[in-house]
Amino acid sequence: MRRMDQRLADLLHILQLEQLEVNLFRGESRDIGAPQVFGGQVLGQALVAASRTVEGRACHSLHAYFLRRGDFNAPIVYQVDRSREGHSFTTRRVVAIQHGAQVFHMSCSFQVPEEGLDHAPTMPEAPPPESLSDFENYRQELVAQLPEKISRFFEHRRPFEFRPVQMPDFLHPKVLPPRKLVWFRTVDRVPSDDPVLHRNLLAYVSDYNLLDTSPQPHGRSFLHLQMASIDHAMWFHRPFRIDDWLLYSVDSPSASGARGFARGEVYTRDGRLVASTAQEGLIRLRERTAPRS
User: Fold this and answer.
1) Average model confidence (pLDDT) for the chain?
2) 218 Cβ contact partners less than 8 Å away, ≥ 6 residues apart
């Protein structure tokens, strides 16, 4: 049997939460080179915790707030409140706790499958992913040019492939419209058809390529800014596989008050809208960080 890519295997491992008690779960964290736990990890694990308390219903929306920086050297405990058990809808609230303090909370809603009206926008035109360069190639070039403190984030090899329609230039950013298109998928086949797992993985990866769209009209990159997610919302519309190519169409309609707002749409290759996202985050100016000489 072919061995799964270790990056994906490790991600699937950290999404398998340990159940401590009824409605209480514990998850491991990973250091991906950032000063804190990656927000997508907490989103994914919180959705896992909520989903473990629901049967026969699919998550259709979640709304979350990042309250404190997570410590990747310590586990995170997820406490699930069974807020509502309705005829068609189930609501859960998840609180993530670390070192005795809340670091994150999320409300999410689950629905019994139903038929109804159906419409969606047309997917933006984009070149096929096979015609685009993998971000991995740019990542390797970037690591050698960034200060060590920042390059740690790019030294981490991610469990997803990213193929931007327009490759970013973090070292020499240009003024660009506040929108981007990025193809993505897991680096290997997911060994399960369970749609719950595929939604959990999409929640994890949805935190990439979102907020950093906001500085584009100002010719700024993360090197010039202090950035952190404040909140994150997500809606699941239709079935998908996370190991098939998906197109993330992101735009940022506003930045003000040291905050940026971005929203995204996720499409399958055949043009079906499968999920939508929205995020607001802190964006503060800081002194320019010089590349390595």
Assistant:
1) 92
2) 175, 255
